[in-house]
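Case study 2.
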Amino acid sequence: MQHNETRNVSLLSRIVNRIILFLYKWRGWKIKERFPVDVKKCVIAGAPHTSNWDFVFFAGATHEESVQPNFMGKHTLFQGIMRNFMLDMGGIAVDRNKKGGTIEQLKDEFDARDELNLVIACEGTRKSDGKWKSGFYNIAKAAGVPIVLAYADNENRTIGFAPPMMPTGNYGEDLLKIAEWFRSKIPDLERYKVLEAQARAIIEGRNDV
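Prediction:
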């Protein structure tokens, strides 16, 4: 919700949260590396994004860690009867046509709140080959907040978080560190290999995205 807004939590959001927690526990997911303590504001960069179930299991893990995950959504989704539900679930309305764009709006949200953990699926879509979009990095850099990496090992049903990492401004080098961390968790995952290759291509000047 907005940092200065007070209202009752919707019945729908309470029901959905209970279902998510049930499914998370029923499927037997566990947290292998805990969310870093004392981090109140960050961009949580998650990968891989291969299924719609990713949201369910990740939301269950953050609930277990007493972390409220936030996500950005198109501002038109925060209207009418859906408004309270979207806000309760951690949604942040973003108007892509607004002056300053998405990054400036999210920077303002970080500035206005005492706590904000913005979750971004950096691959963009489930059909990604593993390359990342740079939006997560630019948001963290603009807001002056750390990046917390998060992986999901579907085979072993484990989720893990990395220590907070402040963006240095050298995207290629930072992306390589990110890729190496992910590969240390699931070395043979093809998407992580693609991410590492993308980072090296940026460093070598063969790719600027």
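The chain has one domain: 28-203.
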